[in-house]
Amino acid sequence: MFKRDGLWWVSITFRGRRIRRSTETSNMELAKAIEGRLRTQLITGEYFDRCEGEGKTFKDMAEKFMKEHAPKLSMNMQISYRTSLGNLMPYFSDFKISQITPKMISSYKAKRYGDVARPATINRELSMLSKAFNLAKEWEWTRENPVSRVCKDKENNERDRWLSGDEEKRLLENSPQWLKGIILFALHTGLRRDELLLLTWDRVDLFRKIIIIQESKNGKPRTIPLTQTALDILTERSKVINLKSGLVFPNSKGEMITRNVLAVAFGKAKEKTGIEDFRFHDLRHCFGSRLAQRGVDIYTIAKLLGHKDIRMTQRYSHHSPESLRRGIEVLENSGHDLVTVGENRNV
Fold first, then answer.
1. In this structure, how many other beta carbons lie within 10 angstroms of the beta carbon of residue 292?
2. pTM to 2 decimal places
3. Residues 78, 131: one domain?
C-alpha cells in the first residue's frame, strides 16, 4: 500500500495484471481490510465480474477529473481543459462512460468540423478526453479508453494573415480603451492570449524594461524586451495595480478577463472596422511577421516567440512585397555589371 493525497492506495499484481485503486480512506487499518477484501475478490473471480464505474456518466468523470487532476496543472492548462470541456460536455454529458464508443467519438469529431473547429482544437479536446479515460481506468470506472482507437488528424493551422497599417489604425480606433491596450501590447510583445491575460506584475521589470514569461508553451521561461509602446502601456497601468490578483490586465473587478469576454469584444471591434478573416492569435503572427520584414533573424524571432522548434517560426516569417523588393534590390547594389558578366561568359 502507498499514500497519495492523504489516502491509502492498494497496488496488487494478480496473474500478470497490475491493479491499483484508492481505498478512499486515510485510516490504515480500514485500508488493510479493503485490501484483504480485494485480494479475496481477485481469487474468487468476483472482482473482474463487476466494474465500480458502472452507472457513472461522462459528467461524473469530467467533474472528478477537474476536481482531482486539473488543479495540479498550470493555469494555462486548466483554462485549456475548461474550454475543451465546454465543447465536450453538451455532446457526452448524459451518456454513461460505458456507452461512449470510438464510433461515437468519431461522430463528435465530424460535428466539430461542422462547427468549423480547427484540427488542432479538435485534437486538444480529444487529448483531454483521452486523459480523462486513462484516469478513469485508474479509478476502475472503465476497463478501456475508447479514444485510443480514434485517430487524431493532421494539424495544418498556418495562416498568411497580418494587419496592414491602415487596418491596425482602424481596429484600435474602434476598440474600447481596455481592449486597445491589450491589442497594442500583443502586437509589441508577441504574447499568446493566455500569457497576456495571466500576466502578473511579478513578471514585469520596468527598470530593466523586460517581462519574463515563466510558463511558456515549451515549458521554458523566456525574456521579452519591451518596446517603448509596451513600456508606456505598463507604466500607465502600474499607476493602478490590483493587489488582490496582481494581474496586469484585469477586468473592472480585478479578476482575469475571460477568453469569451475578450473574444466578444475583439469580434465587435473587427465588425465595426470591417476587418475579415482575422483572429486575436493573428496579432502574435503580426509580431513575428513584422520582425522578419524588418530584417530580424529567424533565431531571434523564435526566442521571442518561445518556439522550441525553429520550423515553427517559419510561419511567422512571411514577407510583404515591399520587403521582398528591398531584398532583391541588394543585387542592384552589389557592384556587378551583369551585362559585362554575360559578355565575359561568351568569350
1. 21
2. 0.55
3. yes
Closest to 226 measured CA to CA, from 206, 244, 245 = 206
The answer to whether residues 143 and 172 belong to one domain is no
Give the span between the Cα atoms of 196 and 306, in whole angstroms: 14
For residues 223 and 291, state if they share a domain: yes
Residue 346 banded pLDDT, cuts 50, 70, 90: very low
Q: Which residues fall within 8 angstroms of residue 105, CB to CB, at 6 or more apart?
A: 126, 129, 146, 147, 150
> For residues 171 and 188, what is the distance between their CA atoms, to the nearest angstrom?
15
What sign has the CA pseudo-torsion 324, 327, 333, 337? negative
DSSP per residue over 66-134, as a string?
A: IIIIGGGS-HHHHHHHHHHHHHHHHHHTTSBGGG--HHHHHHHHHHHHHTT--HHHHHHHHHHHHHHHH
Cα angle value 283/284/286 (rounded, 5°): 65
Residue 339: pLDDT band with limits 50, 70, 90? very low
